[in-house]
Task: structure prediction
Amino acid sequence: MSNHKLTIGLFGFGIVGKGFYDIFKQREQGLDASIKKICVKDKNKKRILEESFFTVDKNELLNDADINLIVELINNVDEAYLIVKQALLNGKNVVTGNKKMLALHLEELIGLQKKTGASLLYEAAVCGSIPIIRTLEEYYKNELFYAVSGIFNGTSNYILSKIFNENLNYTQALKQAQELGFAESDPTSDVAGFDAMFKLIIIVSHAYGLIIKPEKILNFGIDTLEKTDVTYAKQRGYKLKLIPTVKRVQNELISLFVMPCFIKPDNFLFNVENEFNGVLVDVEFADSQFFYGKGAGGYPTGVAVLSDISAIAYNYCYEYKKINSTNQTKYTTAVTLKVYLRYNSEHLLKILNFIDFEEKFETKESRYVVGYLLLADIIDNKNHILNDKAFIALIGDEIKLAN
Result:
């Protein structure tokens, strides 16, 4: 299939937008493509390009008949949705890196692609330079997935690396991540597990053919981590990682969540440090595969954007084979997890309805238990756990269908 000329309208010229632009200018000879206009919030801001290259009017790009590809790389989720939706309705192909926007609107956007014949690609939305979406979509499209898990968020991983390898406390590690630009001034999306959850939703749609709403999924982060929890891990030879997980628990039943996990050295993710990401894929015939690379930043993400543009030049689009098949896969929260819970109020322990305990520990400074809980019970009591400022983490990868 021959390629065709692409005229690009770019939204956003921040870290990712500028990173993509730099890469594009170095590699554009290999592409029959050009950037016609860039839409930004502030046209008068000092930039490396002439002012005439920029606009603050999104319709200059969306309604330009010459522009046949929109590249959306802005932070505003609601605005990104309106841009992507209108671009598809106007028959323009779209490349985006906005994982939250996709997680909230994926079903609708897939329908728009089907209706208009335009293509929407988003490799940049999940794990930066790791080509996981196209791998799931193409390489494994005929495979049965047992599990997909990993480190999808470089900010939280950087913080945990500093805590475990350099003995920083959480506040110190977060401050360092913010100073280096790995964490936002409000880091909630990263450290509370929301960013990882949005990426997991996208991965589940390609691996299992299910589109699950964010409010249905458990996400806990590392923002209540304390010295007691780190000591517990180190005494047992564990590291702590924030790991989104989807696992087939029986035939057509899958379960998924985002939680901190205590893992041992034999886990591939044990040595994924700092801002790097890692993805573990466990399938029927190819067995276990591990993907590793930088998950964020202007250049790693820009590479993913450029890869999608190259694919669109050859009329590529996601087939969504598993979504479009007679898919019987269902999502269940009726699974048992082995967890560590460090808590403050005895009342929390009573309402959580532990199935069994393996360990209980209490001093004047802290108290924790290790035991078994239903995922459904954790979801139902999430607000109680958050209000208690407790810390909960999965131990190992025991995820079993409840009896």
Summary: The longest helix spans residues 99-116. The CA atoms of residues 108 and 245 lie 24 Å apart. The domain at 142-293+333-401 is CATH 3.30.360.10 (Dihydrodipicolinate Reductase; domain 2).
